[in-house]
Amino acid sequence: MSTAWVKSTDSVELCEFEQRNRQDQSCGKSHNWIQQGIARINTKRRIKRYGSCRRSVDDYSRFFLHVDSEDLPRYYAKCREFAQIPDKLGHSIFFSDGLRKIDYVLVFSENLEDTKRRKNKDKVATESTWSTFSQDTIDLTKKEQWRSQFLANIKKSGLEIEEEVVEHGKKAFVFLKIHATWPVLCRYAEELNLRAPLLLKTEKSDLRNGSDSFLKYFGLPNPMKLTMPTEPLHFYTCPFRENKLHRFLGSENKDTYFTTIQRIRIVNEVLSSAVFGTQRKGEVGINRLVHEGVFIAAYPLHDGPYVVEKKKGVIKNPEELNPRQILYEYWARWGRWYKYQPLDHIRNYFGEKVGFYFAWLGFYTSWLFPAAAVGILVFLYGLVTVFDNPYANDVCEKPGKYKMCPQHEFGKFWDLYDICTYIRISYLFDHPGSVFYSIFISFWAVSFLEYWKRKCATIAYQWDCTDFQGVEEKPRAEYAAKAPFIAVNPVTGVREPMFPKNERGKRIATGLGLVFVMISVVIIFIFAIIVFRIAIAIPLHNMNMTRGYAHTMANLTGAGLNFVIIMIMSKFYEWLAQKLTRWEMHRTQSEYDDNYTFKVFVFQFVNFYSSIFYIAFFKGRFVGYPGNYVYIFNMRNEECEEGGCLIELAQQLAIIMIGKQVINNFMEVGMPWVKSWWLKTKVKTKKSKKQPNKNQIQVQEDYYTSPNEGLFQEYLEIVLQFGFITLFVAAFPLAPLFALLNNWVEIRLDAQKFVCHTRRVIPERTEDIGMWFKIMQYLAHIAVITNGLLIAFTSRFLMKLLYQYEYNWSEDGYYDFILSWAPNGTYSERCRYRGQRDENGNYTMFFWKLLAIQFAFVLAFENGKNPSPNFFSPAEFAAVKEYSMPADKASDALISHPSLVLISDIAV
Asked: What would be one Gene Ontology cellular-component term for the protein (predicted)?
């Protein structure tokens, strides 16, 4: 007699096949099919639970591999029936009765005396406390009234509440555990258009990797391939309707029909739309209550602990792990850094929004490999040929050859030989290889975006979330509460809250005005840093010890100060952008996220890139010449060193890009630990011989972790990085390498943050990465322009090429040619300065020829590369979203859309 499942409550009960057969035979069902299916696997192993009280339905996919296809629907329902398995170790996510699942937790603190007084008012049951207590609001504070009204309203909605109290000195921390009943789940499942399973997909997931297909083609082993103990299932689905419940898979068991993330979405919707005060004042939803301090936390529970018990470093039964442990063991820990990401598992635990983020981050990181490899080769080329550079050798040959004019009013004459080392180093960032690399990166950026578009369509199809934003997404709770009237949605035909377009347009215009004001503030700061850099360069240049490095030290100091200002301003503006976006009243969460993203990125673009644009395209171009210099506050305008501005640009890029990555990674590691330590300190209970309630452990453990702050900062960090490695890659070919190294670390840090160190995120549906993709498209367009301008005007590539063509192909005498003599009578001695001018200060014919060539090069560079090649026509791309499936399942699509052959046969 083989044991199939183990139920664990206070004592372990074995559920045997004979017991299940008797139960189902009484309902007129035969179990020959299930016995035959499970007989092919090791049914003698007892399936225990370590942490989660409910195994996700998709975790049972390993059993389906041995069941005939015609029995899959019935077998799926049976696995749903067995899914509710309590936890032996006490990390329970059930109410104290062991039956009702905890879907959400609310936490607030109060004086211990108030807690005892409140409990004495109703000793019958914790659930009924709120219905009676909410009516007695005479002596309550405003926050207590809000809390009481809120809890009474969510109870009226059908949610059930159980209370746990943790005493800490004279204070009490109250944990309210919330359970959604079946009527609530059905009602809100229809309102939210949740997808319900109709039929199991027998074909495998098409979320393959290009490297896997490549290695398989050549018959090579793939060390990156990840073998999971379970493989999630995929279904054909349709919107849930309660009157058609019998047609959906798994509908026989109401306790396990809705998945964990569906239950969390429903409860979160109830909490977000519950009114606790005046609706027109926006006194709606749990987020407002947490912001006002009425509750100190609101979160769904993790599925038990993430720590995996091992014997001698080996997991005895990996198929027995809960979903959180699976994610930690096979994805989040550092030992898995070289493995593919289990995207289906991530999606099933955190929702589509988090799944898309990690899919995009992994895809982008894999595409950084060729960019980083070529960048290293370009840099090595410059390193190998640096001492063969005839231009630097001309300067470094002997001192006293080029006597230079003073670089400021109180400066001295100086020798170009003093910055010989600087000129050699500048060659590393300004050589012919940089031109090739900028062209390569322009093509790389465009190709990456096009292939991600295709990958995104495939993922959206596999995860059944195509057209989610246009049809399925509902209005935000705050929008619905403040909208003044009801109207029919022209897309869905459903009556829903509406906000006047004219009023919203005025608010959006006002918000854009404030954005431009903040951009102006950033530009003022940049101007102040320029003045600061000029001011400190003067004393440094006057000292013999620092003369050769005066500009370098001034630039590094200014870059460091600029970085500090950038980080401070970015935090303030994110707060302001959030306030503005809420005030603008966007209908859906996707619209809200897109508008918030746009505001923040426009500001951050100016914040992070303005100083870089200044160095790349403006510094040293409005200086004048001896006897006719340009002044700012009685100080001569700054200019680039004789080695050119590209090395200064590389310094600025390195400080901002690498410094930002280091600080962000440190914050991601340190801040969750600090917040968790602080929460544990606040709620730490006194030592007691009494064992803690097992139902209380998981609730408190999740509270001790840091609140999850979402994905915005993660996207912002990587998209800004994408801008750094595309817009100015001609000046810093090692940028993709640093980005690749950072992203390797970033994936693990983000994975550990979501799995281990923060509370469970609210699972959200989406069909793409939103506004971030459009932003990257804009950056790819701008990158073509900036790299063309860098090569033409900032680099000396064209100047050297024209000199070789017209004067000396051997490159001898280059510096003697490009350095002009100061006009007679300007200084006491004859000296030279950088510029193509004659002795009267007029531009030479060489300057005008060079200018014409520079403009011609920019035009050729822009038009020579199409920044947005169309791999597919709009109709074909629409078909991608509709027919993204294996080749043997897409014959109709391939006939209508031949381009889809590429999609079906090639995995990205």
From this structure: plasma membrane
pLDDT value at residue 490: 66
Cα gap 29→40, rounded to integer Å: 21
- The helix (H) or strand (E) run that includes residue 462 is helix 432-462
Q: Which two tokens stand for residue 845?
A: 């014919």
d(CA 271, CA 259): 19
User: Closest Cα to residue 330, out of 343, 347, 348?
Assistant: 343
Tokens of 741: 């190294």
With 0.85 as the threshold, say if the pTM is over it: no
**Are the C-beta atoms of 518 and 603 separated by less than 8 Å?**
yes
Q: Can you tell me which residue has the tokens 């549906």?
A: 765
Burial 556-594 (b: 16+ CB within 10 A, else e): bbbbeebbebbbebbeebbebbeebbbebbbbebbbbbb
Give the list of residues 6+ apart from residue 223 with CB closer than 8 angstroms, or none: 338
- The fraction of the chain above a pLDDT of 70, given in percent, is 74
Contact 472, 193 (CB under 8 A): yes
From residue 183, alpha-carbon distances to 101, 160, 242, 245, 824 in Å are: 15, 12, 10, 13, 94
* Distance separating alpha carbons of residues 755 and 350, to the nearest angstrom: 9
What residues does each domain of the chain span?
A: 104-194+240-299, 354-834, 874-905
* Cα–Cα distance, 646 to 385 (Å, whole number): 18
State how far the Cα of 108 lies from the Cα of 117, in Å rounded to an integer.
Answer: 16
Of the CA atoms within 13 Å of residue 73, those in its CB half-sphere come to 11
- For helices 432-462 and 771-789, give the axis angle rounded to 10 degrees: 170
All residues at 6 or more sequence positions from 739 whose CB lies less than 8 Å from its CB, including other chains: 368, 372, 657, 721, 722, 724, 725
Sheet of strand 104-111, all strands in order from the earlier edge strand to the far edge = 159-168, 171-180, 104-111, 297-299
Report pLDDT digits (tens) over 566-583. Answer: 778 777 877 888 888 888
Averaged pLDDT, 669-677: 71
| b (16+ CB within 10 A) / e for 464-498 | bbbebbeebbbbbbbbbbbbeeeeeeeeeeeeebb
Joined together, the tokens standing for residue 632 give 């700012």
What pairing do the DSSP bridges indicate for beta strands 235-239 and 635-636?
unpaired
Cα 706 to Cα 142, 481, 678: the distances in Å are 27, 30, 9
* Residues 616/515, Cβ–Cβ less than 8 Å: no
Q: Among candidates 347, 301, 322, which has minimal Cα distance to 705?
A: 301
CA distance 458 to 875: 16
- In degrees and rounded to multiples of 5, residue 179 shows phi and psi of -125, 135
The DSSP 8-state label assigned to residue 635 in this structure reads: E
Tokens 């659930």 correspond to 127
pLDDT at 890 over 50: no
What is the rounded CA–CA span in Å between residue 466 and residue 765?
10
| Out of 242-246, 342-346, 371-375, least confident range | 242-246
DSSP string, 764-784: ---SS-THHHHHHHHHHHHHH
The Cα 386–Cα 755 span in angstroms is 48
Q: What angle do CA 749, 703, 171 make, to 5 degrees?
A: 145
**Residue 193 near residue 887 (C-beta atoms within 8 A):** no
Per the DSSP assignment, residues forming a β-bridge with 311 are 314
* Angle at 661 (CA atoms; ends 659, 664), nearest 5 degrees: 105
**Residue with structure tokens 């990158």?**
783
Please say whether the beta carbons of 356 and 766 come within 8 A. Answer: yes
Predicted pLDDT of residue 777: 92
Segment 531-556, tens digit of pLDDT = 777 777 777 766 766 666 676 677 77
CA–CA dist 556, 385 (Å, integer): 26
Amino acid at 839: E
